[in-house]
Write a structure and sequence with these properties.
- The protein is of the alpha/beta class.
- The strands form 3 sheets. Strands 3-2-1-4-5-8-10 form a 7-stranded parallel beta sheet, with helices on both faces.
- The radius of gyration is 19 Å and the shape is globular.
- The N and C termini lie far apart (41 Å).
- Bound molecules: NADP nicotinamide-adenine-dinucleotide phosphate (NAP).
Length: 286
């Protein structure tokens, strides 16, 4: 049995789907099981990283864990809690979803400090481990869909900073390889798409896919911080986001790797592939 945490989210949904398609027994973890969060017919466990007894239920009879945490404010506590119950329950291996740039110094700050602490806990856990450090998800641009459908410009927080934007399905495919093949134990993979793209590059590819112009508007760091705070995001999360976007804006995420191709023996999908599959999100009328 493989436990998939974050199973209702962007990456976890794909991990569940790919595990099922390849005939593996997978259990989806969510705080709120329903047909909306996890497809019907899936083995599901209701559990919360904040509730140790629910985590103990989640890891019962589990061999491997896909560990995806998304705490509202940055903390390694969710990773640490899961690792503790997994070790006691005799789980063999863990695949941790981290982030590109984790631990890199940027000015006085460290990019992805909470993922860095969580990675250290994973490596010290005594379980066989694989760490995945993906670049910026192609699916982040779904946040732009309302603006694009309304013909409005999309906010650009990262200026001309290019990133190796990656299809979430490729991240999930690498996770499934690591969950099912011990050859990936002890490896840290940095996962990118095949090309470097800035937000204006993504906008022009989306424009070609939907057949209408997509403009961008530059949001300087001070305004971005103000907007995120007034949207209700907790200050610690705003600070972590600001560090990550400043890092990308400065061109520090101008990184392409071969890791997806090495693990999957095929090229990663392009942003255009992803945009074509999600065209409807940017074009449908309400
Ligand atoms: N977006 C990017 O460009 C990017 C790039 C690199 C790395 N990352 C990393 O990717 C991760 C986010 O992945 P994602 O986009 O797939 O996530 P997502 O779509 O935001 O989904 C978050 C998942 O976490 C679960 N969750 C949240 N709080 C929980 C709790 N207290 N207990 C149990 N489950 C909880 C949610 O499940 P329920 O609500 O169903 O309980 C949901 O399935 C983060 O670690 C982020 O740092 C993101």
């Amino acid at each position: 049995m493989i436990l998939v945490t974050g199973a209702s989210g962007t990456i976890g949904r794909h991990v569940m789907q790919l595990l099922q398609q390849s005939g593996h027994h997978a259990r989806a973890m969510t705080r709120a099981p329903s047909g909306r969060t996890v497809p019907p017919g899936v083995d599901v466990v209701q559990a919360d990283f904040e509730d140790l007894s629910s985590l103990r239920r989640a890891v019962a009879d589990v061999r491997a864990v896909f560990l995806l945490t998304a705490p509202a404010t940055p903390t390694p506590d969710h990773d640490v809690a899961l690792l503790a119950v997994a070790r006691s329950a005799g789980v063999n291996s863990v695949v941790k979803l981290s982030a590109i740039g984790t631990g890199e110094r940027f000015g006085t700050a460290t990019v992805g400090a909470w993922h860095q602490a969580a990675e250290e806990a994973v490596r010290a856990s005594g379980l066989a481990w694989t760490v995945l450090r993906p670049s910026s998800f192609a699916s982040n641009c779904l946040y732009w869909s309302d603006a694009i459908r309304a013909g409005q410009p999309i906010p650009n927080l990262t200026g001309d900073g290019e990133q190796g934007v990656i299809d979430p399905r490729d991240i999930a495919a690498v996770a499934v390889a690591a969950l099912t093949d011990p050859a990936h134990a002890g490896k840290t993979y940095t996962l990118t798409g095949p090309e470097l793209l800035s937000v204006p590059d993504q906008a022009s590819q989306l424009a070609e896919v939907i057949g209408r112009p997509v403009e961008t508007v530059d949001i300087p760091p001070s305004s971005a911080t103000q907007q995120l705070l007034s949207s209700g995001m907790p200050p610690a999360a705003v600070e972590a986001t600001a560090i990550g976007t400043a890092w990308a804006r400065a061109g520090r995420n101008r990184i392409l790797t071969e890791d997806v191709a090495k693990v999957l023996s095929r090229s990663p999908a392009t942003f255009r592939d992803w945009a074509q599959r999600h065209r409807e999100a940017f074009t449908r009328t309400p």
